[in-house]
Amino acid sequence: MNVYRTNAATPTLIDTHCHLDMPHFDEDRDAVVARAKEAGVAAMVTIGIDLAHSRAAIALAEQYDEVFATVGVHPNDCADFGPDTLAELRKLAGHLKVVGIGEIGLDYYWDRTTPEQQKRAFREQLALAAELGLPVVIHNREAHEDIRAELRAWARDVLPGSKLARRPFAGVLHSFSGDLEMAQEAYEWGFVLGVAGPVTFKNARRLHALVPQLDRERLIIETDAPFLSPHPFRGKRNEPARVALVAEKLAELWGMSVDETAARTTATARRLYGLEKG
Ligand code: NI
Questions:
Q1: Residue 277 has what pLDDT?
Q2: pLDDT class for 9, splitting at 50, 70, 90?
Q3: How confident is residue 276, by pLDDT bands cut at 50, 70 and 90?
């Protein structure tokens, strides 16, 4: 298995969720992007977690043709989320290479912010995404039931008739950790699911059982780099080139060629984020 293939048969992949602006990449960012391209990664979506990181994500999208950005405030960073934050996000979201709002959501693992603060910031950003017609990138950690309640209400009350409702998909549940029932409900809201490095872990039995049951037109792959490095790099700094390892594991679980798996996940990612062919 050679992840860094350079021959013409290299499948085209998209890393739909990474954090390229993080300091982990300050020493060798050019090389990281170059290795991704060599591995067949045609596009990388670098995800905002607060205003500063969202601005940095846009700067990288301006610097590298293959990089696109999302802007948003993560639930752990929403303590001072207010009207000024929302106004600034609206401004940043107008950039040509901004392809989504995120990552936004709920995270009950950490307690730097209260559930009430998190829900307020989440709802305001969901409403902004619907208004602007940009898909949402959802972070969910130990908050399954509240995420379901929030997205169910948004899909029922806010999304219909909005600019976002005219797009192929409304958003992605990133690094999906729910069950089949939650996946099926997410399809009803117009969502796709993101699969990341943990699917390659030998002990990820629950994910290995779930993935073959997921809709193959509703799944995209991601690294969440610098985090969640796939096997055999678990615990090391992750990078977008390693989305190829996620594609290979997914192909194995689906009983499909890597090429076909790449073609399907790449087509879904392009539809989600509105990325041009290239
Ligand atoms: Ni992330």
A1: 55
A2: low
A3: confident
Kindly provide the b/e burial profile for residues 20-31, where b requires at least 16 CB atoms within 10 angstroms of the residue's own CB.
bbbebbeeebee
**Residue 139 CA, ligand 1 centroid: distance in Å:** 7
Domains of the chain as residue ranges with CATH: 13-273 (3.20.20.140)
- Sequence-ordered list of residues with C-beta below 8 angstroms from that of 226, at least 6 positions apart, any chain: 19, 22, 24, 25, 237, 238, 239
Distance 227 CA to ligand 1 centre (A): 8
- State pLDDT tens for residues 136-191: 999 999 999 999 999 999 999 999 999 999 999 999 999 998 999 999 999 999 99
Four-point Cα dihedral 212, 213, 216, 222, nearest 10: -70
The one-character DSSP state at 65 is T
Centre of ligand 1 to C-alpha 239, Å, is 12
| Residue 79: both structure tokens together | 């303590």
**pLDDT > 80? residue 7:** no
CA distance 256 to 164: 32
For residue 204, the SS3 value is coil
CA of 18 to the centre of ligand 1 (A): 6
Q: How far is the CA of 224 from the centre of ligand 1 (A)?
A: 5
Average pLDDT over the chain, rounded to an integer: 95
Say how many Å lie between the CA of residue 196 and the centre of ligand 1.
10
Reported pTM: 0.95
Neighbours of ion ligand 1 (CB under 5 A): 224
